[in-house]
Amino acid sequence: MVGLGKHRLFDEDVLVIGLGRFGAAAALEMDRLGYRVHAIESDGLLAERFSRKLTRVLAVDAADPAQLAEAKPGDFRIAVVGIGSSIEASLLTAGNLVDAGLPSIWAKAVSAEHARLLERIGVHHVIFPEAESGSRVAHLVNDRMQGYIEFEDGYAIVKMTPPQELIGFTLAETDIRKRYGVTVVGVKAPGEDFTHALPETKVGRHHIMIVSGPSKLIEQLAARP
Fold it and tell me: Where is the RCK C-terminal domain positioned along the sequence (predicted)?
């Protein structure tokens, strides 16, 4: 299968349903990040186009529970529903994933009413593609990053939870800039004000960090357990 020998930052199987512009962008970016991307696309020609780019592509209708079952959705933790051409198909597909018990379902919404219905049936993250590009969502599904802004030169600023190896140590002790090539701009704890990071800043389990640097180096840090 494509990409199975590559170095993987995020060693996990994910499911993407719908390979239109949004879904394709999310799928290809997650593949680049190292996820094993399994996709479902009802358009056979479109499915064939991506069959050599992703781990597996099935040309079935995910709105039909029997056809969705071919992908074994219960085996996945994360799914992204990129269907936008049919609200009915989107809702049926999302409902099938909720029934399968996936703990992290992301779904594209094309209107406020569509978003409301997706939330009512149990979708965990509703995305408006005008605000959230597919490639940006690819960086957020791992649950470590809570915000991601990338600039044209490959530089990024992210909001993220700290890796285990930083917890309980000061930034000087972790030497994060030398080890990972990124800079911790500041930290924030629940109920407290944002504080700019200093060498003596100690990273706690409850902290959210604002980190800046080359996007590829930030991705490596976010992949740490």
Answer: 157-223
Whole-angstrom distance, CA of residue 213 vs CA of residue 157: 7
- Domains of the chain and CATH, by start: 13-140 (3.40.50.720), 145-222 (3.30.70.1450)
Question: Tell me, what's the pLDDT at 152?
Answer: 58
Tell me the pTM: 0.65
What per-residue confidence (pLDDT) applies to 122? 92
In this structure, the chain runs to a length of 225
Q: Do residues 35 and 16 touch, judged by C-beta distance below 8 A?
A: no
Largest CA distance in the chain: 57
Could you say which DSSP state residue 158 is in? Answer: E
CA–CA gap between residue 223 and residue 217 (Å, rounded): 10
Query: What mean pLDDT comes out for the span 115-139?
Result: 78
- The model's pLDDT over 192-211, given as tens digits with 9 standing for 90+, comes to 887 888 889 899 988 988 88
The distance of Cα 60 from the centroid of its chain, to the nearest Å, equals 23
Sign of CA dihedral 179, 182, 183, 184: negative
Do the beta carbons of residue 33 and residue 3 sit within 8 Å? Answer: no
- Give the pLDDT mean for 9-13: 79
DSSP designation for 73: G
Strand spans (E) along 28-182: 36-40, 56-58, 78-81, 104-108, 125-127, 145-150, 155-160
Mean pLDDT, all residues of the chain: 85
Query: Do the beta carbons of residue 184 and residue 210 sit within 8 Å?
Result: yes
Contact 43, 101 (CB under 8 A): no
